[in-house]
Amino acid sequence: MALLEVASEEEHQEIRTRSEADLRWLRRGRAADAVRELGLPWGRGHVWGAGESRAMRAVRDQLRGRPGVEKLQVLGYWSRGR
């Protein structure tokens, strides 16, 4: 499953993969809400994410302590306005 955040629908891109990926496009600013509402798959697993620093902090806060999340790696690579 991949949550992809973009500013507008015009930024959606075709992503080809041989896997059965569940791609979900989000409008900018909805990442933390989407993660909060997300029903993670049953069982144990890892979460990886990268993006704008404030957005990733909010996503990390939503995932920290969730049952089944064994490894959480959410990284802020840039800051808006810098």
Poorly predicted ranges: none
Tally of helical runs: 2
Structural class computed from helices and strand pairing: alpha/beta
Silhouette: globular
How is the main sheet built?
A: 2 strands, parallel
Helix content: 10-25%
Would you spell out the secondary-structure blueprint of this structure?
Blueprint: E1 2-6, E2 23-27, H1 31-37, E3 45-52, H2 53-63, E4 69-78
Parallel strand pairs: 1-2, 3-4
Explain this structure.
The structure is a single chain. This protein is an alpha/beta fold and 82 residues long. The protein has one domain. Helix content is 22%, strand content 34%. It contains 2 helices and 4 strands; from the N terminus they run ββαβαβ. Strand 3 (45-52), helix 2 and strand 4 form a beta-alpha-beta unit. Helix 1 packs parallel to helix 2 (53-63). It is globular and about 35 Å long. 5% of the residues are buried.
Based on the model shown, name its key terms:
two-stranded parallel ribbon, alpha/beta, 22% helix, globular, 82 residues, 2 helices
What is the structure about, briefly put?
This protein has 82 residues and is α/β, with parallel strands linked by helices.
